[in-house]
Amino acid sequence: MPxxxxxxxxPKIIAYLCNWCSYAAADLAGSSRLQYPTNIRAVRIxxxxxxxxxxxxxxxxxxxxxxxxxxCHPGDCHYIDxxxxxxxxxxxxxxxxxxxxxxxxxxxxxxCSAAEGxxxxxxxxxxxxxxxxxxPWEGYLDQESIKKLEQExxxxxxxxxxxxxxxxxxxxx
Amino acid sequence: xxxxxxxxxxxxxxxxxxxxxxxxxxxxxxVEKSPSLGGRMAQxxxxxxTNDCSTCILAPKITSCYNHKNVTTYTMTELVGVExxxxxxxxxxxxRPRYINEDKCTGCAECFEKCPEKxxxxxxxxxxxxxxVHKYQPQxxxxxxxxxxxxxxxxxxxxxxxxxIVCNFDAVDYSQREKNFIVQAAAIIFAPGYESFDGDIVxxxxxxxxxxxxxxxxxxxxxxxxxxxxxxxxxxxxxxxVEKIAFIxxxxxxxxxxxxNYCSSVCCMYSIKHALLTREHLPDAxxxxxxxxxxxxxxxxxxxFNRAEATSGVNxxxxxxxEIERREQDSRLQLKTTGGDGxxxxxxxxxxxxxxxxxxxxxxxxxxxxxxxxTNKYGFADxxxxxxFVTGREGIFACGAVTGPKDIPESVAEASGSAVxxxxxxxxxxxELGVTEAPPIASRAVTNQRTRIGVFICHCGTNIAxxxxxxxxxxxxxxxxxxxxxxxxxxxxxxxxxxxxxxRIEEYDLNRILVASCTPRTHEMLFQDAVERAGLNPHLMExxxxxxxxxxxxxxxxEKATWKAYELVRAGVARIKNALPLERGEVDNITxxxxxxxxxxxxxxxxxxxxxxxxxxxxxxxxxxxxKAASIHRSGLGRPIRPxxxxxxxxxxxxxxxxxxxxxxIEDISGFxxxxxxxxxxxxxxxxxxxxxIVATGGEELKPDEYKYQNSEKIMTALELEESIENDDxxxxxxxxxxxxxxxxxxxxxxxxxxxxxxxQSLRNAIELKKKKPDSEITILYRExxxxxxxxxxxxxxxxxxxNFSRYDLETKPKIDIVEGDNLEIEFKEPLTDTVVKDNxxxxxxxxxxxxxxxxxxxxxxxxxxxxxxxxxxxxHVKLRPVDSSTDGIFLTGLAHGPKNISxxxxxSQAAAGRAASILSKEFLLTAATIAEVDExxxxxxxxxxxxxxxxxxxxxxxxKKAEVNKVLCKGCGNCLGVCRPHAVDLKGFKNQQILxxxxxxxxxxxxxxxxxxxx
Lengths: 173, 1016
What we know:
The complex is a heterodimer of chains A (173) and B (1016). Residues 1-6 and 153-173 of chain A have low confidence and may be disordered. The relative contact order of chain A is 0.18. Chain A starts with a helix and ends in a 20-residue tail after the last helix. Chain A folds into 2 domains: 11-140, Rossmann fold (3-Layer(aba) Sandwich), CATH 3.40.50; 143-173, no CATH class. With 173 residues, chain A is of the alpha/beta class. Helices cover 42% and strands 13% of the residues of chain A. The longest helix of chain A is centred in the middle third of the chain and has 18 residues, at 82-99. Chain A has a 4-stranded parallel sheet, with helices on both faces. Chain B has 1016 residues and is an alpha/beta fold. Chain B folds into 6 domains: 5-96 and 178-194 and 361-425, 3-Layer(bba) Sandwich (FAD/NAD(P)-binding domain), CATH 3.50.50; 195-358, FAD/NAD(P)-binding domain, CATH 3.50.50.60; 453-576, 3-Layer(aba) Sandwich (Rossmann fold), CATH 3.40.50; 588-698 and 853-925, FAD/NAD(P)-binding domain, CATH 3.50.50.60; 701-851, FAD/NAD(P)-binding domain, CATH 3.50.50; 931-987, Alpha-Beta Plaits, CATH 3.30.70.20. In chain B, 28% of the residues lie in helices and 25% in strands. Chain B is built from 28 helices and 53 strands. The longest helix of chain B is centred in the middle third of the chain and has 19 residues, at 558-576. Chain B is globular and about 100 Å long. The model of chain B is unreliable at 433-439 and 1007-1016 (pLDDT under 50).
């Protein structure tokens, strides 16, 4: 991709924020009038532990250029240890996605306490820069390419190579 | 309806007391002197020993208290006087003018910018400035502006008046005057908090003169990410990096000359916290702590101390700082300290933090005296050791730091305890209690109706509209599918707009509402109420945050911010379109308490609940009641326990509501909050049921296996000595040379906790012996003297009586030998002279550790409630839920929870009773609306959800092999969703589909987005 195009690229980043700490930090960044790039779209969830890995994959599939998951600091979880589960899961998923070719810059996990408005603004700025550095996300397959793939290799839902049968689980496409 | 109770003080203690009473169905007046609730805790950065963020844990508590329908909050209000009698007090109050109409102000902050007058920010302790019209703190509750009359140009010189001009709500009111009024209350809870006491730091440490000498509270603000330095530790004088920092313990505490002999109990811990946080912020900084004794006597505190000791760069120095001078050449601070050898040493630092103590507020002491509430010699409210919240005046209860120095969990526990005492006077009528929380009824039909969404977009004056083109967003959204109406409103939170929303629902037959404005954290409840009044289920309203996370953070990128707002609103529409009405379910509640353990802790809890009118079943494994207290004789401050214990036993035996099962063993416990079953074995098999369980199963004293304890009659434990003193044993009359060894079995590798009460117990025994026989020689060999709080007076008394003290370390433990028949020989190292001393004591007393009860493991498994590393029962939250277990409906008290003395056990038991009462007072329990649900057709019964649920709210049915959600226990965190492979679990209100719809709408490409210029 030409350098000038890369500079103009404005990524779309979905931020999953836990209701108790990071969402509050984002609010505090606002009431403190700290400025950060507009590329972030917050989705409020009760706890980062609520995020199923599939949700992250689907977010990428739906066209997000980057993802930020931000919860409470270790030990601060409103639901005792949801953020620990989230962290463990996220590390695994990140490695898996990296292995399958998703740049690590797209996947970001952090913590912000309700008093850390400044930290939140900094995190967003950094994440936007990171995602910008790897360009738009075009790694997912659209319906057309999947169809093409199906013709070549048979049904991706099937375990037998070349098989025409099997069930395609819509959910996993 | 029960009679109202008034709570004075809106800090953490007052908030807890008010919430507990409100939950019991008692109307509460919560009176706070400052413009916002929160008190001291709101100023803290983190809390020990978990380093939890203070605001994170406090803010939800404040909000739910403030919004509770049984709580009426008066801010900026002070107590004037009290007349009348218990059950019927007339409390005179005085409300200072805010100069802001509290009904009209929305906290939009538009006026702050225009105000020309800067003043020191009180919340940040003057370390920064805000305007004369301001919010007390960014997250103030209530979220209202306030005008400082001393600095307002309009009020002072009748000039300016800008805030009135810019206010769109006509909320500024310069004509407000002080208002006096009277409220009726059955009881009064006094929780006005404390003042930081600094002794003579001004003259001694040049505080105020040297800018880089700060108090601990100031340091809290400096550490805070939202504080004056954004959490950067820099020198206040010149903003330079801090490389070396000193913490001075006991400034203003343990200071006999200043009439503050008591220990403030919290400074050691918060200084350790400060040291650890400093290293986190500045990994290279050198941190020195100057201390006398490290008093980490609370639960989990010793481990925290050990962690700090093991942290490189953190040095604990046992020494007093004599003076602080500022060096001319590099303006660093030079500390002169007394060295161990009697000489002086000096060292340079960039920043010095003074660990200031806790003292009663001067005006509070006056208030107390006005109220005819007895104060102690230090000016704190005087309460009894056996009745910790009862003041000298009937009907007035005190809790928190007003009765003496203490930390947050103790204050919270005391607050719940005083709520019980006050509730007793408020004539609770159990029969009518359940009525106080009936589920709301939404009349408007939603299912099988076409989705008709109403979108309301707020200008928030210029707060949103100044950046975001609100009309443009409204126009675009209006064309979206399912959107019946899109309307922009100047201020959605105003009363008129609330009515407007209700009218529109009626007019357009709307069945989903999207509000695009500020944050749901502060305003969700308001809008939920508004739609509910129009007959719509409150969960059919969603909010989209376009101010706090929109216009405010993108003020220079108007086009992009507008586009972002449009996308957010579009996503909100996508999300709300599939929302379903959510109801809170009702579950039957058995209004009986099951109390496990018939010691002082269990009996106190039973008595309080019985007094409130709740039936109680009390189970004790021994034949007799009294537990450990039956074998101890003196309270912490030396009062006899026997008479109190006998009275307590008599009281609970006489109370018809309390059934006692003594001589019964617990066989099994099952069930959940509202419905516990208890199986007992004993004289006969018994099955009991109750809505709550209070665990008060006690602990044990260690029988030491060191210091030749097993080998000589002349070596006994402190408890055995107490028994001998009480019986005036002959064995003591011959004992002239007595040694006491502290920390026997505590604070060692395999038992790394402090047993808390042994230091005071030994001091008390030493004083007792010395008084009986002044010529006896008593030496206490200790590691750290932990006579916290008022017990410091005992330490002083013992020293005045001539008791010797000598410190030892874990590496230089004293040695005891038995020589020539039955004679003892002790050998220990005297640190001051650095010599080894040998002596032949007549008696050696071992301060043995407190052990968790044998049964803890078994009971914990039955209750499915966890133990901590030391096998004591673990509380749900170490700071704010000190007597709750993580399992709903199970409460912890006494030695089962951790080492504590009798007075502390009583206070904790009253707290447990208070927390239990807030559940027992409901005829049925309401489940949360946003909880998990299982699609059985998808569930494979793998049990992953069960493993991650800390609330034990989801379990796989062993026969059906399907997961089931316990609606009472589920908190709606969604952790089970995170691990569910077949996606069989979903979370109401945060459904997978809703979130995916939202994300899809956020990411959707729009035909026009390129033409918009600000491509996003």
